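Format notes (please read before filing issues)

Several people have asked whether sequences and structure tokens are stored in separate files. They are not. Every record keeps both together, in the order shown below: the sequence lines, then the token lines. Line labels are part of the format and must not be stripped during preprocessing.
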Amino acid sequence: MLFDKPIESITEQDIQALIDTQIDAQKAERKTVEYKQALPGGTDNDKKEFLADISSFANSAGGTLLFGIEEQAGIPLQITGIQVDDVDAYKLRLENMLRDGISPRLPRVDVQPVALASKSDHHVFILRVQKSSLSPHRVIFKDHGHFYARNSGGKFRLDVTELRTAFELSGTIAERIRDFRAERLSRISIGEETPVLLEEQASKIVLHMIPSSAFNPSMSIDIKALNDSSQWDLMRPLVVWDTQPPTSLRFNLDGIVRSAQWTKSSATPTMISTGYVQVFRNGIVEVVDVTILGINGEKKEFLGEVFEIRLLQAVKKHMELLQFLGVEAPVFIMVSLLGVKRYKIERGAYIPSYTDEIDRTDLIIPEVMIDTLDGGNDDITEVMRPIFDTTWNAANYAFSPNYDNDGKYVRRWH
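Then the structure lines:
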């Protein structure tokens, strides 16, 4: 089906199959799909109508808008296509309209022109809108200021009661994300019901990546796909070293976990766990490490550059993991440092210099949000900068020293 395919893979045949199905059913699916024969015009009313359509999907269950389809009473009749001189320019126009005309800005709307083999120089424009974790969104173009949602009859304007409910639901999602984080950090701190046994007194870095859809009752990922050894690298533990230590993989009540081990030197060498990657059944990823902050915690210092680069690598790798599992953005990224009171951050590896001491036991750094899972290194470093700056602030340093004046990360990583 068209809705199950990546948007860039959709063909004219997929669109025709969708139309045939709905013609046979003689039933309009106005809650999650809408057809229009023409692209938005240049008048203010045309633009407001377009923005209302898109925001109504984002404020409801998400959906798909197809331009270049003749319809009647919501039922598609045939592909007509649209002739546009410069497809890329028009795509950019739509994206700019969405960026400037809806508040808060939508986390993601995919715009895909599909060339028609049956009609030279004609396209169907597909816009795929996700259900937004930041809803409710309103149309702000020309001071319009209204909120919209959708049901089986199409879009409708939210009244005061419906708006109040929408805002309460939005707050509930954010609250559940923060409550989940607080509960997990409490368990990790005291070593209660963690997937592997970690030294209770060891200082720890905890990375949480929480999709906005994680607390949807219908959200469930196929964890069995990660049992294939070819996919194990997607669950790469966070460690200070360049090479990965021995690891093990197993299923558990929460989902699936990959843990890392290290041989502790002593009179009797013993194997200890240095951390793990836990993938929950609802798509949440939890990563815990004790190596970057020092396995024994004797020196109470860590190298800021290594801390940042290893986290950047972990975020990038687990974005790939979420993509593989079919999880969609936006995703909230949270970093916590546990047991770091009196720690200092080393500013340079070659000429050591140190910050002041961190003045509290745990650093619970505010979350950031990433709105795409296929971004490059620059996207990741930009999103992660507030987390890094806040970490350095905790040690009386104004900002991360590893960004230049243009906000570009100056260290090499991959």
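For reference, the curators noted about this record: The CA atoms of residues 303 and 349 lie 7 Å apart. The domain at 2-158 is CATH 3.30.950.30 (Methyltransferase, Cobalt-precorrin-4 Transmethylase; Domain 2).
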